[in-house]
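Hello again, I could really use a second opinion on something today. Take your time with it, there's no hurry, and the full record follows here:

___
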Amino acid sequence: MDTTSLLIGSIVLVMCLLPFLLFYFNSSVKQKKRNKNLILKAKENDSMIHEKDSWNASIIGIDKRNKLLFFSKKSDEFDKFITINISDLSNCRIERTENKDKILEKLELELTFASKPTIVLEFFDKNETRLIVNEIEIIQKWQNVLHKII
């Protein structure tokens, strides 16, 4: 094999791999930024994140000592970051919305409190994210985490 063919093959290989590498590094940078923002939000509330999960453009974390839940979901219209005091949480349940063909359209965690309005945390919306990856496992995990606190 001559050097020209080797050089052309190498360039084509790099050109094919470049989009995947750029996507990976871009996602990694966004993930690190979300983690940093979660930690900063916790510090603002004199808290520390004991457990966290992230998926797509969302992140959830908990300070079990102070009973604070942190949740962020970025969408096209806004970047929502909320802090929830779960000390008077009375119930936590998963709300699945499916269409007539039993295709999942929404996946939400509904938090019911004794003395304040219900809060709904959206984990998946078919209109925002076409592909569900690990949201079902994550929402079940967080329901279990919160049930242990109740």
User: Anything to note?
Assistant: The first strand starts at residue 51 and ends at 55.
